[in-house]
Amino acid sequence: MTTSMPEATTALRELTYAEAIREAFATALERDPRVTLIGLGVPDPKGFFGTTTQLQQKFGAHRVLDMPCAENGMTGIMLGAAINGLRPVINHQRLDFALLAMDPMCTQAAKWHYMFGGAMKMPVVFRMIVGRGWGQGPQHSQSLHSWFAHIPGLKVVMPASPHDAKGLLLAAIEDDNPVVFLEHRWLHHVKGHVPAGHYTVPIGPARVARRGADVTIVALSYMVLEALEAAATLAASGIEAEVIDLRSLRPLDRTTILNSVNRTGHLVVADTGWGLAGMSAEIIALASEGAFASLKSAPRRICLPDCPTPTSPALAADYYPRSGHIVAAVREALSQPANPDDLLVPADVELDKPNPAFTGPF
Amino acid sequence: MLSPTTTAPLPTEALDLHLLETMRRIRMVEEAIADHYPAQQMRCPVHLSIGQEASAAGTAAALRPDDQVMSGHRSHAHYLAKGGNLAAMIAEIYGRETGCCRGRGGSMHLVDLAAGFVGAVPIVGSTIPIATGLAFANRQLGRERVTAAYLGEAATEEGVFHESVNFAVLHKLPVVFVCENNLYSVYSPLRVRQPAHRAVWQVAAGHGLPSHQGDGNDPRQVYALMHDAVEHARSGSGPVFLELLTYRWREHCGVGFDNHIGYRTEAEYLEWRARDPLENFEQRLRTEGVLDEARYADFQRTTADEIAAAFTAAQAAPFPTGLHDHVYA
């Protein structure tokens, strides 16, 4: 059985993930006059799910801006601003909207330093939110992190905890390269310890979210929460799962993953995206190439079913994998009997809501 | 509007000679590239500016050294007119470490920050927003620089053109959109891409910014239009759009002539050939008695030597090593 870290006697400062994002922005705007936030709705009364509330009032309309509904052009404009000395963050309330800007993100920003022989830097952050549940449907829910992770020249991060959300956002803003910063909508309400003041979490290293010797679960973004829940369930059956929170997709922390797989011999990957050509495929390829001799079972992955996201709650219930799916995959990997209870949904849980308090609409 | 009243100063002898020499130098560089290209040592696509020298020379002459420009795939003339380093450009086309992009860019990715040439990329329209963003940052940081975005008429069909112009007008950004209309996007004529009853400058004007059309083969007219546009932008009055009518002589990509393949007529080519921006301006300065023949001959000799030296140096320069260099800053 795992024993948790000794708790501090005084309560640690806790913030929600959304509050942590806002605090990172406020810290960055305070520390560096070059930092500029832009995006549709950034200064609006709803404050981008509470992540930008009152920032325009505090730092001025020239640094915290709304923008025309022109994701492609505005992204290119912010690249020019970055070349000329600003440090822009372009905010998209859904990743799906940012797809209109694939040229400036992947063909321009990602190659700018390289194709001019290092003459210029491109310090820009592309912040996108991955939607889920409440009928987000086919066009408000795509988790296409693997597209960005595919591109040399980009960095890609998906923080899962409030602590890492603030630290990685500050690191992204301070980085001299284009960074894709991906938040999962179902993380915004999650609370956790967030230190006050300025700190960064380095882009690159994964985080071992739970130690264990029997199986390695590599998870990213929201699926880290499901993986931790799965690990708790497995612990009750005497299975100690190691949960690795990937945090950074590019660069990828190969060492932490391989070290763990070499110790446990079993790998399950939990991804927020689709399987085919997805990030889960990359993690399993990494284990196959780098830890093949240690593997005692075929790696398994928990991904979205291979179809667009359904809108109706009736279909959505079976669309998103849960901790129980991870538990079942681990049992299978360890050649343990399946437990039909793993996939039961408690009567009081509504599968299309991130938490009981959520009432929509977005 | 056509032929707007200009506040530009009357052309001086010095300006005329500068325009002529800038155009002649561009023509000589491009012809040298055409001469050397068959040796297959310049192993990248090249898009020559021959026939379009006046728009580059006239616009650049109205800009300050610290003003910034960006361009697209056909950028040699813009780079040279803005003062980009010739030897670094030729070395770049030769794929050498001494090139302006250390061999990572080639002809389609020129850069010379010291000259204010911030970059060119070959995705049509993609530098329009980036140039607009340069102007946005200049505004935010209190710099009085003007930015010019060079684009072809086909780039006005891209969404980012409209998105960029809208934002520039909204924020009154100091940027001039310089559209060279050479009638073709690769081999697709303007008539299959835009309705005939409407000019390119009229489309831009719909965004609510001053928009003018001019003879892109007349360097004095180009200079006058650009002079006013730059003054407008620098004064804080916002962006300006210029449509400059011109024509590329050689094939879209490469150094040959392609009138025989059937996308345009020999007659059309000859008509534009007769409107040669360089020869006509040269002749005009002769007629006006401005051209000092001895000095001009001397300029051409010096320039030929400079070009020959650039090619010799490029051919002798080392190739880059370090496949993974410069991926991340």
Proportion in β-strands of chain B: 5-15%
Please compute the radius of gyration of chain B using only Cα atoms: 19 Å
Strand arrangement in the largest pleated sheet of chain A: 3-2-4-5-7-6-12
Structural class of chain A: alpha/beta
**What is the terminal-to-terminal distance of chain B?**
45 Å
> Can you summarize the main beta sheet of chain A?
7 strands, mixed
Question: Looking at the chains present, what oligomeric state does this protein adopt?
Answer: heterodimer
Number of strands of chain A: 14
Share of residues in helices of chain A: 25-40%
Biggest sheet architecture of chain B: 6 strands, parallel
Mean pLDDT metric of chain A: 95
Number of helices of chain B: 11
| Structural class label of chain B | alpha/beta
Low-confidence stretches of chain B: none
| Fraction of residues in H or I helices of chain B | 40-55%
> What order do the SSEs of chain B take from the amino end to the carboxyl end, as H and E?
HHEHHEHEHEEEHEHEHHH
User: How many domains is the backbone of chain B divided into?
Assistant: 1
The domain tally of chain A reads 2
Low-confidence parts of chain A, pLDDT < 50 over ≥5 residues? Answer: 1-5
Q: Do you know the CATH architecture of the largest domain in chain A? A: 3-Layer(aba) Sandwich
